[in-house]
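Lab manual, section 2.4: Encoding a predicted structure.

Procedure: take the sequence of the chain (146 residues), apply the prediction step described in section 2.3, and record the output as structure tokens. A sample record is shown.
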Amino acid sequence: MTSIREQILLAVMAAVRPTAEGLGATVHRSPTVAISREQCPALVVFPEGEAITERANDRVTRELTVRIVALARAIPPIAPETEADELLTAAHAALMADLNLGGLALGIREQECEWEVEDADAVAASIPARYAITYRTLARDISSPG
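Recorded output:
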């Protein structure tokens, strides 16, 4: 049995994949190597961390931070930031369409967003957005919802 945390990460991937692929983007989870130019535009999902926010009897409330990064590359005068923004906007809407991720989570909160633009082999834009996903498990079993 997988943990509720892993089930949530799989649900996030399932939520954003159709929208991202519909925009011609590739979708990745925690890649260990850089996304190549040929793989762009791309949407990347990273679990960043988890904190326990409350313990009550045999229940534990947890907050999982997930970073979703929209990547795009373009050769000027085309602006990769626009393509990355469109991708992140679509992924955000898809993720927020079900704030409980099919009953796995208590809720999703958007936290912050950043912009990064680099001059690589083409201009590369990266827009990472962070989301806090709150969920509850049993203290003795992280694969059981609390």
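Check your result against the sample. The helical segments are 4-22, 80-96.
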